[in-house]
Records
---
Amino acid sequence: MWFIWPLLLLAALTGLHFWWRGKYHRQIKQQQTALNEVKRQVQQTSLDAQAQQKVLFDSMQEGLLLLDRNQKIYLANRAFINLLDLKSELRGKTMVEALRLHELDDLLQRVEAGHPVSDYEFKLPNLNERWLQINAAAITNASGEREGTILVFHDLSRLKQLERQREEFVANVSHELRTPLSLIKGYVETLLDGARDNPEVADRFLKIIERNANRLDLLIQDLLTISALESGRLKLELQPVNLQSLVDKVFNHLQSKADNKNVQLVNHLPEFTANGDANRLDQVFTNLVDNAIKYGRVDGVVVVGGRKLDEGKLEISVEDDGPGIPPDALDRVFERFFRVDKARSRDQGGTGLGLSIVKHIVQSHGGKVGVSSELGQGARFFLTLPKAG
Ligand code: ADP
């Protein structure tokens, strides 16, 4: 029976081995699970941080571009992609590859040389009138080493457009003022040079001077109105306004002008009461009816009519049976200084600001203006106003 002891010992050792191995494996497994969990948490935290970063960058109005230390795109936010109308994936590309804008290379080189770039203005070559302002700087770590580049893009298009409109406006105003002024100067000089000695000629010249002085006066009045309307300085005094009587009053003022062309003025407006500023609405209808007489035909008819719209709104129209407005000018007649026929408008004493004033006044009442016309078939201007009560 001596062999039983070694066998028992062997069995005990084997049991001990398996017990130890199981325990050891369990520990390793537990450690591995814990390690995996830590890894998962680290990954999750990094993903969360990235997602947060993306949400933050995407919520920016400015376009943002981050380049790594090899000048390759690491991140482009949504505003940047929209601003440049980009479709393809940008990550990993250089700016020139992604944007095909060699001009920006120079800008990057300046940043690389350690000079931050601020307020660099740049016009995109392919997109219509898209202007960008770029600020760029190097990103460095705590030890001052270059980690990459940050570029912030601001859309300047609207600002540039306003700047251009302002310049055009100033040029137009100067031109409009200069024309009557130089006529006045010219005739005054001729009178002083001797024309005053001939009463007939003097009378004719003085009438021309008077007409041009009136034109200047009208232009300045219109400019002041436009400026007050655009700056919001002009406050409306809202009250119930009977439109039918208002149009009758306007017709009265313009009757002699209509008679000169044998134009019939017809008020078809029902008893409509708008919530508006009576003086401003008088200006609106005076401009529209005056235009209808001026640009309508001799022996023509001008009709003012109206209908109720939903949501407490009234639509009023002023219609003539004149030559009408060409289709390509329909969208532009409400622009300041736009005229279909410049010479004709000037002959009629127009300033080119009437319809723009009409549009501003109607819009400040919360309404809309529009026009429809077919050549040879007359023009129909319409506007909406809030109903009183
Ligand atoms: P203006 O002082 O030249 O009349 P407006 O702003 O009132 O300026 O009108 C702009 C242009 O719109 C006019 O010069 C004219 O060419 C065109 N227009 C306005 N009303 C009519 C109309 N009823 N029929 C044809 N053309 C019109």
Note: Residues 1-55 form one domain.
---
Amino acid sequence: MAEGDAELADLYRDVLLDYYRSRAHKGKLEPHDVRGHGVSPICGDEIEITATRQGDRLDKLRFDGHGCVISQASSAMMAEAVEGKSVPEVLKLVEAFGDFMVRRGPMDQMPAELEETKALEGVRKFPARVKCAMLSWNVLRLGLQQGAAEYQELGDREGT
Ligand code: ZN
């Protein structure tokens, strides 16, 4: 690894840890219009999302959960990116994040709202950890589509 790359990795680690420690969107909204619960058994990540809507707009989003730095930081980034957006806009952001993480799309095509999630680029090399990053986004997508959702990230192999 070149020296510059190592510095970049350090920088991204700091960004992830800042989001991991942030309390800004932690908690549970009562009452709420949208709820989603998801687990990623491979890693032990668990997330519960509650959100309120104002008409077509996702007004507030909070999440509660535990798990690895990647799953929790990704949830905090998501909350920051989607609050105040219309539901179709939110679903587009979820899709764009999946393009970036799972389908390894180019960073320069990321919507401005997802700028901070570029810190997760290094995670893309590790399929099991991509599931950690995607968990809350998949839970939110299902929650918006169904109102209430239970979601489980499945392993790539049986028994994992
Ligand atoms: Zn994880």
Note: The chain has a mean pLDDT of 90.
